[in-house]
What we know:
The protein has helices spanning 5-14, 19-38, 55-73, 75-92, 96-126, 147-180, 249-281, 368-386, 398-402, 452-466, 509-532, 538-560, 617-645, 659-676; strands at 131-132, 182-192, 197-202, 209-214, 226-231, 240-241, 284-293, 298-302, 320-329, 410-415, 425-427, 431-435, 440-441, 492-493, 503-505, 562-566, 569-573, 577-581, 586-592, 595-600, 604-608, 654-657. The protein is flat, with a radius of gyration of 34 Å.
Amino acid sequence: MSMTPERAGEWRTAIPSRRWAVVLVVAWSAAFALSVVTDTVPCSPADPSVCGPDTGFAVFVVPLLATPLLLLLRPALGAAAGVVFAVGDVALDDHLPANVAFGLVGAGCAMYLWRILRGRRRQRLLTGGTRVPGPVSEQPEPDSWDLVRVGAAVLLLLGALGLAGWYARSVAVEEDRLARSVVVDGEVVAVDDVDYLLDVALGDGGARRTVTVPVLEPTDHTVGASVPVLLDPAAPDRSTLVAEPPDHTGWLSAALGAATAAALLLVAEVRRRRAVRELWVGAAHRTEVVLLPDGSGSVLLLPVGGAGGSGGRHALRPLGRVPVAFAVPRASDDSAVDAGGEPDADGEPDTDGATYADGPGPDDELDLETTRRLEAEAVALFGQVWRDEVHWTAMLDDDDLAGLEVPVEQSATVVGSLHEGGYVLVVTEDEVLVPDGPVRPTTDGGWQERGAAAGRGALDALRRTFTGADADGDAVVPADPAPIPEEGPPGHAVAPGPVTGTVVVGTTQARRAVGVALVVAGLLGGPAWVRWMTEGDWFQALSAAFAAVTVLLAGTRRALTEVRGETSGLTVVTGMWRYQVPWSSFHGVRRDGTGLWLAWEPFTEVELPAVTGGTDDGRRAEDLARALAGLAAHSRRAVEADAAVRPAPGPAVRREPGPALALLVLLVVGVAAAWWA
């Protein structure tokens, strides 16, 4: 069965628009805000459960928080999560505004889920056709797990176990505290509405003492008011209000959330493997489509007959997207042909005449001399690429170059039930594309007619973006084999300019001022935060120290970066490091906007984001780059001439600690002193 433009239109509009998911997310946000604002019931010592731990809510908060995220990523799962929470909220919560709000959201999610399931059924009917028996490839079916997905699930499960264990421990500690605590009436003597604390005086006369207890709403308490306190004689600093028992159910919610995420990942992987196994060998529906790689690891499915601009608006939009895990050749490859040469009469590859210049094979063992020669050739080639003497694709092997081939539209067959959320195999003339995930629509059913001419123009632009095709649909392969220029070196190489003596390249005054401000903020802010804001919490102190180090290093990169070029060599200060680069090891300089890029042996690259001076920063950057390139060329010629007269090994690149190291040590000392203070 062919996916014609007309059938594609029905297929696409069978699924409700993604705009409904956005509407439901907005409604969920409004319901959440309404439930929080209207929940004004005060905590009560007569009923501690009002503000105490609620295990039921801790369980249902997982679908509550998952609903908006899944609605945008996996609409069916998100709608199901919304229904589950709505049912739980109505059943367990006696807060009427929240019941009404989330009940309406749940009803909307139920309707959306019903429309999705009905649309999937309609899509399966549209692509049902005739089942074609036989395997899709002569190769054996792939039986590999997605290690990233499985590994993430395992890590989430381990995290869930750890969180659940911590929750159980916290509950046990709290039960021990409750067993030895006594209820004592106290008087509020101070209210701290910044740190949410109350100072409560307990006892009378000489036995009177003050304890500090946490509070959820400081504004609900006034000085002089009487409050019952659950006093722990063994640890008075852990006393709490009777009306506000500690709540550790957040750890339970986190454990359930991690376990749910792990389960979703594992179920998705099991579904994918089972679908691939069943589709590989069994009879399945097959649908003819047009295939277009999108350059991001997925393929777009287009209707047949829409490539020439006919078929109405539905021929001008991709049908769906299939993420691809890997490809398997359709034909079996039992020949002994290898990269080393053609097979001999005995079926073994003929490697006569193969040299290391052709690239070492996977089983070749390189001697030390050959290894050094290949490394030197790689360094020299990198320098040539950096100076734009050769194209950057010269550094790629045949496999990498094959990945740069311009993708073109081609006919393909989709094996399996082609519907949103389903798993399919995509079979081309030469290979079978194994899916990494389910089919996802690329457009919504609410797309409005914009005119045939505008639609054809959009398709032409799409083709030019992905394939370099012209308006007639014919692929145009450019002479330049670099359709992905961002893979090459940044910016462009500059021609050497006249030698003007010493060249100094710094950063702009504005960038340097920002850097100085960041350095001061890191040096002063880190110790100050640790001293007065962490309250002895080691985790907060460690986080503050890490943030201060990050700010300090960012500031030193901006304030202290400088390049100084002299006839003896190049000195580059990046804040943390100072490099001494002889001209014989210098690859070259490139300009990228108002900034410069430097490179030296073997493959070191350093960026100067914004260079100093001038009303035209771009012109100034170009002048400085040419001056550096001219000094490098002049000095390199002098070094080569001297080496021809007196052969000797040239100096090596040296890296020394930069000025940022002293500032970093000063910051560490300041943070340590603040912590111990």
